[in-house]
Design a protein that fits this description.
Elements (H helix, E strand, L loop, with lengths): L2 H4 L12 E3 L2 H13 L4 E6 L4 H4 L2 H13 L4 E6 L3 H6 L2 H8 L4 E5 L11 E4 L3 E5 L7 E4 L5 H15 L1 E2 L9
Parallel strand pairs: 2-3, 3-4
Antiparallel strand pairs: 1-7, 2-5, 4-8, 5-6, 6-7
Helix pairs in contact: 2-4
Length: 173
């Protein structure tokens, strides 16, 4: 059964099993379903903030609702390459400007530029992982122990060394 059929039944931290993701729609469904259930933190480690995955109404509404309705829920994004996002714009960058205390985009530090990961972690327990940039193959687990914990810890360590993404800052005149 596909994620698109299962999503309404899946609960972050409770539903077990690995679900294969093979299309843009699968990834959109998984990331939005997971993000909508975020209570504490949503962590996104991305190569280029893919428009197909993260600049769509379903995901943006889920993230925005989680950050605005759940007390202290934040969206933290580690971005490897901001060039495409800076050139073409992105609604997550706009969301960061509207609620900067809850949404922050940081650049991947130079010493971690060789990392090619692409994942979303919700509350350090659920995870969507994309296997390779440019390919729509990956998996999701709504209860992903120990992977979400391990990747969440790695994300937090890199986050502490990172700086706000300068390419996405709006210059005031």
């Amino acid at each position: 059964m596909s994620i698109q059929n299962l999503a309404p039944l899946l609960v972050v931290g409770e539903s077990t099993g690995t679900i294969l993701l093979e299309t843009v729609e699968d990834f959109r469904c998984a990331t939005a379903s997971m993000a909508a259930q975020g209570k504490r933190c949503i962590k996104l480690f991305t190569q280029e903030l893919d428009h197909d995955l993260y600049d769509n109404d379903l995901f943006l509404q889920a993230v925005s609702a989680a950050c605005r309705t759940q007390r202290n829920c934040t969206l933290s994004i580690l971005l490897k390459d901001a060039n495409k996002t800076a050139k073409f714009g992105h609604r997550l960058a706009e969301l960061q400007k509207r609620i900067p205390s809850l949404v922050e985009i940081r650049s991947l530090p130079r010493e971690h530029q060789d990392m090619n990961n692409e994942y979303l972690i919700v509350d350090d327990i659920a995870m969507v992982k994309r296997f390779a940039l440019g390919h729509m193959r990956g998996h999701c687990e709504f209860r992903s122990i120990p992977d979400a914990v391990k990747f969440g810890r790695q994300f937090s360590e890199i986050w502490e060394k990172s700086l706000p993404c300068q390419e996405l800052r709006r210059l005031s005149i």
